[in-house]
Automatic annotation (TrEMBL):
It comes from the Bacteria. This is HTH-type transcriptional regulator MetR. PROSITE patterns: HTH_LYSR. Keywords: Activator, Amino-acid biosynthesis, Cytoplasm, DNA-binding, Methionine biosynthesis, Repressor, Transcription, Transcription regulation. Residues 3-60 form the HTH lysR-type domain. GO terms for molecular function: DNA-binding transcription factor activity; transcription cis-regulatory region binding. One of its GO terms (biological process) is methionine biosynthetic process. GO terms for cellular component: cytoplasm. InterPro entries: LysR_HTH_N (IPR000847), LysR_subst-bd (IPR005119), MetR_PBP2 (IPR037406), WH-like_DNA-bd_sf (IPR036388), WH_DNA-bd_sf (IPR036390). It comes from Nitrococcus mobilis Nb-231. The lineage of its organism: Bacteria, Pseudomonadati, Pseudomonadota, Gammaproteobacteria, Chromatiales. Transmembrane segments: none annotated. Belongs to the LysR transcriptional regulatory family. It is found in: Cytoplasm.
Length: 308
């Protein structure tokens, strides 16, 4: 015989009502059934749970210990049952997000703030996907959503939800000679100091899709983790930086820097939300994706819809 939740619920009901009859009524069982349940428990552990001559019924030390256990444990059981029911209905769950885009904080954090108001039952967390490989972690179930511009066709079980496409622009000081050009060729950066995020070049469009195909290497490369620091370095004539158009709008409007397209047609980059295929239709996942598209459409200028 094992101690079961039904035993704890019985002891909790007896403490609340003061009698077997009251507990039986509360639990919707017969008094005889509760009496047999208590006797079987006492026989198995060879100890009395009550002082039977007391009115109202009073617990023995052993009974008091189990009643206290019931008070601590059963609320957690009820909460877990409610959470499981919420998960089944798609109202509760876990949404651990990893991002591969430093400048995405500008729209992602407001999205998360709005989302928490409508989905308080969803546990949220945010990781920077720069020190690990987030897409394999998504497949393993360690995280639940990855903001990425680089879908991996070799990984199975991932759905890539299109968010939007944006133009990557080269930011430079207003007095830079490059500012005289309408657009920039790869060779224009051969004498420049390029300021980037500290990630491998294969994950930076300015290298993977602009400089390296043309066989061009900038004169120097400098890194910073923060977008605002990269922009301050550009403003202070320390170099140039390739950044999403939306990250530069405020500084261009203030006349602190200028930005030019990379290539005659511009360098456009897609952005996806990667989720596991089996969780794509979960209501709390779908709601986050819808909200992300709405927030970015409202807050970010110069972006375009991205087709699936």
């Amino acid at each position: 015989m094992y101690l079961e939740l039904r035993h704890l619920r019985t002891l909790q009901a007896i403490r609340a009502t003061g009698s077997l009859a009251g507990a039986a009524t509360r639990l919707h069982v017969t008094q005889s059934a509760l009496s047999h349940q208590i006797k079987a428990l006492e026989q198995h552990f060879d100890t009395a749970l009550f002082f039977r001559q007391s009115r109202p019924l009073r617990f023995s030390p052993a009974g008091e210990m189990l009643a206290n256990l019931a008070e601590r444990l059963l609320p957690e059981v009820v909460a877990a049952e409610q959470r499981l029911s919420g998960m089944a209905l798609g109202r509760q769950g876990r949404l651990h997000i990893a991002i591969e885009c430093h400048s995405c904080f500008q729209w992602l954090l407001p999205t998360m703030d709005h989302y928490r108001e409508d989905w308080p039952g969803v546990e949220m967390d945010l990781s920077l996907g720069f020190s690990f490989h987030p897409l394999p972690a998504l497949v393993r179930g360690e995280i639940d959503l990855v903001v990425t511009s680089d879908p991996d066709p070799d990984l199975r079980g991932i759905h890539y939800e299109p968010l939007f496409r944006h133009e990557v622009l080269l930011a430079m000081h207003t007095g830079s000679p490059l500012a005289r050009k309408a657009w920039l060729a790869p060779q224009d950066l051969a004498a420049a100091t390029l300021i980037t995020y500290p990630v491998c070049r294969s994950r930076l469009d300015v290298f993977a899709r602009f400089l390296e195909p043309a066989g061009v290497e900038p004169a120097a490369v400098r890194t910073s983790e923060l977008t605002v620091m990269i922009i301050q370095l550009v403003v202070s004539r320390r170099g140039v930086a390739a950044l999403p158009n939306w990250a530069l709008d405020e500084y261009r409007d203030q006349g602190q820097l200028v930005a030019r397209p990379l290539g005659r047609s511009g360098l456009w980059s897609p952005l996806y939300a990667a989720v596991r295929e089996e969780s794509r239709e979960a209501p709390f996942i779908d709601a986050f994706l819808r909200l992300a598209r709405a927030v970015t459409a409202e807050r970010l200028s110069g972006i375009e819809p991205l087709e699936a």
